[in-house]
UniProtKB/TrEMBL annotation:
SUPFAM superfamilies to which the protein is assigned, alphabetical: ATPase domain of HSP90 chaperone/DNA topoisomerase II/histidine kinase, Homodimeric domain of signal transducing histidine kinase
Gene3D superfamilies recorded: 1.10.287.130, Histidine kinase-like ATPase, C-terminal domain, ORF SCO4226, nickel-binding ferredoxin-like monomer
InterPro entries associated with the record: HATPase_C_sf (IPR036890), HATPase_dom (IPR003594), His_kinase_dom (IPR005467), HisK_dim/P_dom (IPR003661), HisK_dim/P_sf (IPR036097), SCO4226 (IPR042557), Sig_transdc_His_kin-like_C (IPR004358)
Name by which UniProt lists this protein: Histidine kinase domain-containing protein
Residue intervals of the Histidine kinase domain: 97-297
GO molecular function: ATP binding; phosphorelay sensor kinase activity
């Protein structure tokens, strides 16, 4: 929608009346006033508005018995930050609508599985692994919805003491890992004080990115190192090095090099790790993502 700056006499309008004129929605002429700038001494009022054309603005002011002295079309220069914020707002609105449409079928699936389990205990016992896989899939989808919805806000984390192996195994479970990719797990046993579901999302994203970077062939080596005040979990892969110009942007909101990527995966990982009081580091030769977490969450 075109943006205009108009100028007319302030007249007898008070500040309260001007504020009341700032409506949330466009009027019947398609005019939406975003901001008013006035000078009481000079008796001048400027309005920044969006409108279909100049004629629409003139009609808008006619209903207030005001005649514009000037109506100037203007261009807006948006910073990258503003553009990203607008995109995030759109994503947030879309996610809110979609979450309702997705969560309803998930609830039906969950209830149906519960009924099958209750009415057919023998069938459940014979297929317990399949049932658990379906329950876990429903839980994961629901959690991913929560992550997207909570992207603009901070979701409350549920910290528990958990074995690193349990989180890693859960991250890999259900993931389609190509037969030509080897995932080497840590040899040492380490426990983490973290939100299990959120950290699983972090590890799943990092492992999935490594698989995609290696074009379904290669090796992922996961190592864990416990220091005096921190725990480091590194994910080393045999894929190509990440270009330096990409490394500097890889955690930027909505940045992606993938045709179908959203640009939310790695930045969500960064947000989650920072909520845990930690950080993520990246280095090349070999390509390694390292999650560094404090031993004690403050």
């Amino acid at each position: 929608m075109p943006i205009f700056l108009d100028m007319h006499e302030l007249g007898d309008y008070t500040k309260e009346q001007l504020v009341a004129g700032l409506e949330e929605d466009a009027d019947e002429f398609g005019v939406l006033v975003h901001q008013m700038l006035f000078n009481e001494k000079e008796n001048i009022l400027h309005c920044i508005c969006t409108a279909p054309d100049v004629a629409a603005i003139e009609k808008h002011h006619e209903k207030f018995n005001v005649k514009c002295k000037k109506i100037i079309p203007i261009n807006q220069i948006k910073t990258d930050k503003v553009i990203k914020e607008e995109k995030l707002k759109t994503i947030g609105e879309l996610s809110s609508r979609l979450s309702h449409d997705i969560r309803n079928p998930l609830t039906i699936l969950q209830t149906s599985l519960d009924v099958l389990r209750s009415n057919n205990p023998e069938t459940y016992e014979k297929n317990i692994s399949r049932f658990n896989t379906m329950y876990d899939a429903i839980k994961r989808i629901d959690h991913q919805i929560s992550d997207v919805l909570g992207f603009l806000g901070t979701r409350k984390l549920n910290f528990t003491e958990t074995d690193l192996d349990d989180i890693l195994n859960s991250s890999i479970e259900g993931m389609k890992i190509p037969t030509q990719i080897v995932v080497e797990m840590p040899q040492n046993k380490i426990s983490l004080n973290c939100d299990f579901e959120s950290m699983r999302t972090v590890f799943s994203n990092i492992i999935l990115n490594a698989i995609q970077a290696m074009n379904d062939t290669g090796k992922i080596i996961i190592k864990a190192l416990k220091k005096e005040d921190s725990i480091s979990i590194s994910f080393e892969n045999s894929g190509p090095a990440i270009p330096e110009k990409i490394i500097s942007k890889i955690f930027d909101t909505l940045f992606t090099t993938k045709q179908e990527g959203t640009g939310l995966g790695l930045v969500s990982c960064k947000n989650i790790v920072e909520q845990h009081g930690g950080k993520i580091e990246i280095k090349n030769n070999p390509t390694t993502f390292t999650v560094i977490l404090p031993q004690k969450i403050k």
